[in-house]
Amino acid sequence: MQLIIDNLSKTYPGGVLALDKVSLVIPKGMFGLLGPNGAGKSTLMRTLATLQTADSGTVRLGEIDVLSEKTRVRQILGYLPQEFGVYPRTSAVTLLTHLATLKGVGTNSRDRREVVESLLDRVNLKDVRHKAVNTYSGGMRQRFGIAQALLGDPQLLIVDEPTAGLDPGERNRFYNLLAEVGESIIVILSTHIVQDVKELCTHMAIIDHGRVLYSGSPSEAESQVAGKVWYQSMTKQQLAGREWKQPILSTKLVAGRPMVRIYSETDPGHGFQCAAPDLEDVFFSHLSRA
């Protein structure tokens, strides 16, 4: 099963063009959607999750017309938004059982309870299943969010900015869980964190101002800018006083001095050295040339 998006467009009141003829083919596995804040990622995610309509274009998930057959989509969809609320003082097992009932999971209460217990165990929340979800840490809440998204064995899982605010340990546990899930279904990971995509995804796209700037694998993306990324260490005064003909990809302090990375098709001279590109270089090079 593939998710095929063709010429999808959306303009909000006031003339804000959120999606500009977006076309993507998303196969089974982990797919990363990279873009800065306001790029159109959340608009695309909400459209795929049947939470809003598009102005034009088509989306097909296998034989399902996503834009017109919303009920069929919701039967095989799992969705974890960037932020989600929970009932106060309600335990994880009670809330997840309630959500399972609403989604029609299981033929009776015993079946539902078995599904709920299995999911809480899978996301490593079994020992705290009787605690209120609103008392959970950020990472625990996100793992509960994945558990609710996996109710009903979805074929499409949409995850919007999942690691914002997580500490490194929680982030790694979340990575491992997503990677496991992504072995058998389509998982779309929308994020502005390049490392999330590099570590998890076999396919990716870069989107900005509602337009797709790149679609392919992370390794192919890096190979496209090989020999075109250059770096140099300089003082803050040199950085501030220089006129730049090439796009600056990034500046990071290394031992107190800015390390400048630029994009140039040819050797820029002036002491710059060719760098081995990474996915962050790819991301910023596409944004700088958009």
Please write out the topology:
Layout: E1 3-12, E2 16-26, E3 29-34, H1 41-48, E4 56-61, E5 64-65, H2 70-75, E6 77-80, H3 92-102, H4 109-122, H5 138-149, E7 156-160, H6 168-181, E8 186-191, H7 194-200, E9 203-208, E10 211-216, H8 218-224, E11 229-233, H9 236-241, E12 248-254, E13 257-263, E14 273-274, H10 279-289
Parallel strand pairs: 3-8, 3-9, 6-7, 7-8
Antiparallel strand pairs: 1-2, 1-4, 4-5, 9-10, 11-13, 11-14, 12-13
Describe the structure.
By secondary structure, the protein is of the alpha/beta class. The protein has ten helices and 14 strands. It has helices at 41-48, 70-75, 92-102, 109-122, 138-149, 168-181, 194-200, 218-224, 236-241, 279-289, and strands spanning 3-12, 16-26, 29-34, 56-61, 64-65, 77-80, 156-160, 186-191, 203-208, 211-216, 229-233, 248-254, 257-263, 273-274. Strand 1 and strand 2 form a beta hairpin. Helix 3 crosses helix 4. The longest helix has 14 residues, at 109-122. It is globular. The model has no long low-confidence stretch (mean pLDDT 91).
Query: In percent, how much strand structure appears in the residues?
Result: 25-35%
Q: How is the main sheet built?
A: 6 strands, mixed
What is the average per-residue confidence, as pLDDT, rounded to a whole number? 91
Order of helical and strand elements = EEEHEEHEHHHEHEHEEHEHEEEH
Number of helices: 10
Uncertain segments are: none
Find the structural class using helix and strand composition. Answer: alpha/beta
Q: Could you give the order of strands across the largest sheet?
A: 6-7-8-3-9-10
Radius of gyration: 22 Å
